[in-house]
């Protein structure tokens, strides 16, 4: 239930349906594979193979979405210690081979940037009319635009994210390590977006950056649902009703976005009016 709600209640549904092979769904898949592998590496029988595959996936993540590279460091920091305690033979050969792949990815990307923008760099933005591509960092973050703006706000357009965060707070003891690791990375990436000159991300349904952070939502909803089942029938009914309302609202706004009814110059009241008009088919 939590997985389905996370898919339907976030921009992941829109971007997997309309642009399934674009950067955001692709990055989501790579990050989930990294997460699954990181969870198994410390106790994997063929740990060197697992470490090497992790390095290959990490290189793919860097080439696909370099801004998500901190996620690699977060996963290594969280799960590296148990593997290190097994001795260097359990990870050394795989890490060495993986390092070769990682360096090759860095060199390749630097050369691509040299061709495209005229300078070797690990991360670069080309010249383009799109403000999200040629943007820059600002000194004052626009937190409202990222979290609460009428057309893009994370908590306004996709309130299931806020509901999931309640799970992290209310049942924090039940959150697995990968939930906290994913949440830490999501918080970092969302903060970076708030400091960007175009926090609205141009033409976007909701905060499309969160397509890549759906595991955060799924985990939070799962632990919250676990608590609701323990609390009794009334708690389950209330959670189901709130979850249904959140997902329905996001799907309705998605329909507004696809039909051209959701614009960045609208107020919250105008967005609600457009949503009601769509339902009533006005």
Average pLDDT for all residues = 89
Percent range of helical residues: 55-70%
What's the count of strands? 0
| Continuous helix count | 13
Q: Alpha-carbon distance between the termini?
A: 33 Å
Task: Label the structural class.
Answer: mainly alpha
User: How would you describe the shape?
Assistant: globular
Write the layout of secondary structure elements.
Layout: H1 2-8, H2 12-18, H3 23-40, H4 47-64, H5 70-84, H6 92-117, H7 143-147, H8 154-157, H9 160-170, H10 177-194, H11 214-231, H12 233-258, H13 268-280
Helix pairs in contact: 1-11, 3-4, 3-5, 4-6, 5-10, 9-11, 10-11, 11-12, 12-13
Features:
mainly alpha; 282 residues
Structural description of this entry:
There is one protein chain. This protein has one domain. Helix content is 66%, strand content 0%. It has 13 helices and no strands. The chain has helices spanning 2-8, 12-18, 23-40, 47-64, 70-84, 92-117, 143-147, 154-157, 160-170, 177-194, 214-231, 233-258, 268-280. Helix 4 runs parallel beside helix 6 (92-117) and helix 9 (160-170) packs across helix 11 (214-231). The relative contact order is 0.14.
């Amino acid at each position: 239930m939590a997985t389905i709600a996370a898919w339907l209640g976030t921009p992941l549904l829109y971007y997997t349906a309309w642009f399934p092979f674009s950067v955001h769904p692709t990055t989501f898949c790579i990050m989930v594979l990294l997460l699954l592998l990181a969870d198994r590496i410390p106790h994997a029988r063929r740990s060197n193979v697992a470490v090497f595959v992790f390095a290959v996936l990490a290189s793919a993540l860097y080439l696909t979405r370099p801004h998500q590279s901190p996620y690699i460091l977060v996963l290594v920091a969280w799960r590296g210690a148990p593997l290190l305690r097994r001795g260097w033979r359990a990870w050394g050969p795989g890490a060495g081979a993986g390092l070769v792949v990682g360096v090759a990815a860095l060199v390749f990307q630097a050369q691509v940037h040299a061709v495209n923008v005229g300078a070797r760099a690990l991360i670069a933005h080309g010249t383009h009319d799109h403000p999200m591509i040629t943007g820059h960092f600002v000194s004052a973050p626009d937190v409202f635009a990222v979290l609460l703006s009428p057309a893009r706000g994370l908590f306004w357009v996709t309130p299931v994210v806020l509901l999931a965060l309640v799970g992290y707070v209310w049942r924090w003891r039940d959150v697995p390590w990968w939930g906290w690791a994913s949440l830490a990375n999501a918080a970092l990436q969302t903060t970076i977006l708030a400091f960007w000159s175009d926090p609205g991300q141009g033409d976007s349904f909701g905060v499309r950056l969160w397509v890549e952070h759906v595991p955060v939502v799924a985990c939070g909803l799962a632990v919250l649902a676990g608590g609701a089942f323990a609390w009794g029938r009334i708690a389950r009914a209330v959670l189901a009703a709130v979850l249904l309302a959140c997902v329905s609202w996001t799907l309705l706004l998605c329909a507004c976005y696809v039909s051209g009814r959701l614009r960045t110059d609208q107020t919250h009241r105008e967005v609600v009016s457009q949503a009601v008009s769509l339902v009533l088919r006005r």
